[in-house]
Design the sequence.
RNA sequence: GCACAGGUGACCGAGUGGUUAAUGGUAGCAGACUGUAAAUCUGCCGCUCUUCGGAGCUACGGAGGUUCGAAUCCUCCCCUGUGCA
């Protein structure tokens, strides 16, 4: 009972995390720490389903709109900022509630990342060029020499991960997997309660379809057009919804096709999120949507005991 | 009604006599994930068994036929698209 409580809510897109976190924050005097790799960027509004202005005045939100579209927020950045926010909230005597769907960021926050070098754009560019010239197996062979263990666990086709492993092993002059041995630095000082939302697959997919479509009628195309003009190289422009909106703007697909592709992308994403979250330890799972009053009551009840 | 084109596994789509349960792709399901993660990648994917080596059954619009052997060739029928009437 000595350590303060930290509530962590996760689940696939459109499972109702926002609604639930809002409800719990009001009920238990909490503040919300978003865990969303796209909502951190300003001006990305419609496609990210950020909580509304009104909702954000009702309950303080953190880690939303903290970066310019031209910035690049990494899992490490997120972890540091989120930990800082959580400690501040807790120091104020309020309940920190982490809510989001970005699995890696969540893990970076809770378990920490290994202390390795951060990105090196030049090295990455060089390695990517190698892949272009010689194919993915060439760089994978390279990794086999520098870090055989990593090479074994990373598939040769997974270029992104092969490159990161090489980047680490080269710049640190130590195999990445060896650096992993030194462990990570997990978040300490909190009793962490993990709440997982796992609505029925079919119902979730229907909800995703409806929501993705609504984003388009709410002006996603226009928002994407404006963003593309001002920040043509912005990273989050490649995220779900924006990507398809831009394809439509370029004349690569009709509006209908873009909507269908966005819906499909969100459905696939939700599935990937679930396979990530299923591995999470000590999760209290709930089968309904977060916006569902019955589910909210059940979660509220199980939380009330702990507070 | 005539003339072409075509009907392939949930869908799209290759295959034009034999190592073909049938290349690909998509969807679906399962999985991986340590600083791009709304990313990137992997496996399974007709049915039934299996000592996990395999075994059996059913499949390329339908019915017959040719052949040792057909999704592939022939005949008839049904359906779809396009053109001409």
Sequence:
């Amino acid at each position: 009972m000595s350590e303060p409580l930290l509530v962590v809510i996760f689940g696939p897109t459109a499972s109702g995390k926002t609604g639930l976190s809002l409800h719990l924050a009001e009920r238990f005097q909490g503040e919300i720490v978003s865990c969303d790799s796209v909502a951190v960027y300003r001006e990305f509004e419609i496609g990210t389903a950020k909580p509304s202005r009104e909702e954000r005045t009702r309950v303080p939100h953190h880690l939303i709109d903290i970066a310019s579209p031209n910035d690049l927020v990494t899992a490490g950045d997120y972890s540091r900022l989120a930990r800082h926010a959580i400690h501040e909230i807790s120091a104020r005597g309020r309940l920190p509630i982490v809510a989001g769907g970005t699995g890696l960021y969540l893990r970076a926050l809770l378990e920490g990342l290994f202390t390795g070098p951060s990105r090196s754009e030049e090295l990455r560019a060089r390695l990517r060029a190698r892949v272009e010239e010689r194919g993915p197996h060439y760089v994978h062979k390279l990794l086999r020499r520098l870090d055989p263990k990593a090479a074994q666990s990373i598939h040769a086709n997974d270029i992104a991960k092969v490159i990161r492993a090489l980047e680490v092993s080269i710049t640190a002059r130590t195999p990445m997997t060896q650096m992993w041995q030194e462990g990570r630095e997990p978040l300490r000082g909190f009793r962490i309660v993990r709440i997982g939302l796992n609505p029925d697959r079919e119902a979730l997919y229907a909800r995703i379809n409806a929501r993705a479509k609504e984003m388009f009628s709410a002006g996603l195309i226009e928002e994407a057009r404006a963003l593309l003009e001002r920040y043509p190289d912005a990273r989050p422009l490649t995220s779900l919804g924006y990507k398809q909106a831009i394809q439509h703007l370029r004349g690569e697909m009709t509006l209908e096709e873009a909507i269908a592709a966005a819906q499909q992308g969100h459905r696939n994403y939700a599935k990937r999120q679930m396979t990530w979250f299923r591995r999470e330890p000590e999760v209290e799972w709930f089968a309904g949507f977060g916006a569902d009053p019955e589910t909210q009551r059940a979660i509220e009840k199980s939380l009330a005991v702990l507070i």
Summary: Chain A is about 55% helix and 10% strand. The first helix of chain A runs from residue 17 to 28. Chain A has a mean pLDDT of 95. The CA atoms of residues 53 and 140 of chain A lie 47 Å apart.
